[in-house]
Design a protein that fits this description.
This protein is α+β, with helices and mostly antiparallel strands and about 220 residues long. It has a single domain, classed as 2-Layer Sandwich (BirA Bifunctional Protein, domain 2). Helices cover about 40% and strands about 20% of the residues. It is built from 8 helices and 6 strands. The radius of gyration is 19 Å and the shape is globular. The model has no long low-confidence stretch (mean pLDDT about 95).
């Protein structure tokens, strides 16, 4: 792992590394360019995560290798580098750098069975559901809303439910795809990342209050 220094942004080489990797996703390319990954990708990411840990928690940086054991896609390396942490209430904070630039998101990525039951019950409730609808509508003006997986209402709910679009979610996240602006290579990237997460605080509060962490035992 690269040594951690102060975060000064993701240099253009980070984006270029992943664009080149998309064209040549091989061990030979990775070995030849490992120094670029360590210096331009992993080093800045580790520095960023270290700086943000006091406010958001300890981050986990995902491994760069893909698990290809049960996949038809045998490309050995991921086309991006991400890191995630969990807030005290259960919300996740995610940051990613790749060939298309910077992506930042937060919320509940994948609801466990018990979480999904609580989520749907709260969405069905007139007061809590309308509150969430207003929060999501406000965030959707600047954020990308994720987690909608069903094409119709889930079993037990009418298709004409007033909040059917929210009931179709199996997770609920909001995020922004920033691309590759000039500030990505500066310390200003830190402020954009943090602001994106802070803007979503009303959503985090709603999810933490009405859903919260899963109470199911870990799957073996």
């Amino acid at each position: 792992m690269a040594a951690t220094a102060g975060f000064g942004g993701f240099p253009p080489e980070a984006v270029e590394f992943y664009r080149r990797l998309e064209a040549d996703n091989t061990k030979a390319f990775w070995v030849a360019n490992r120094e670029v990954y360590d210096r331009a990708v992993r080093g800045p990411l580790d520095a960023l995560c270290a700086e943000l840990a006091d406010e958001f928690g300890t981050f986990h940086a995902f491994r760069p290798h893909r698990d290809v054991r049960f996949s038809k896609d045998k490309r050995p390396y991921k086309d991006h580098q991400g890191a995630v942490t969990e807030g005290e209430g259960g919300e996740l904070y995610y940051v990613q750098i790749g060939g298309d630039g910077l992506f930042v998101a937060s919320g509940y990525h994948q609801l466990a069975r018990d979480q999904l039951q609580r989520f749907r019950a709260a969405v069905d409730d007139a007061g809590a559901g309308e509150e969430l609808a207003g929060i999501v509508a406000g965030l959707a003006r600047r954020h990308e809303v994720g987690g909608r997986e069903l094409s119709t209402a889930p079993r037990g709910y009418p298709r004409d439910h007033p909040r059917v679009a929210l009931l179709q979610h199996k997770g609920l996240t909001v995020g922004r795809r920033f691309g590759t602006p000039a500030w990505l290579a500066t310390r200003g990237a830190r402020r954009r990342i943090v602001d994106t997460w802070r803007e979503a605080a009303p959503l985090h509060a709603w999810l933490n209050h009405h859903v919260g962490p899963s109470e199911l035992p870990p799957e073996r």
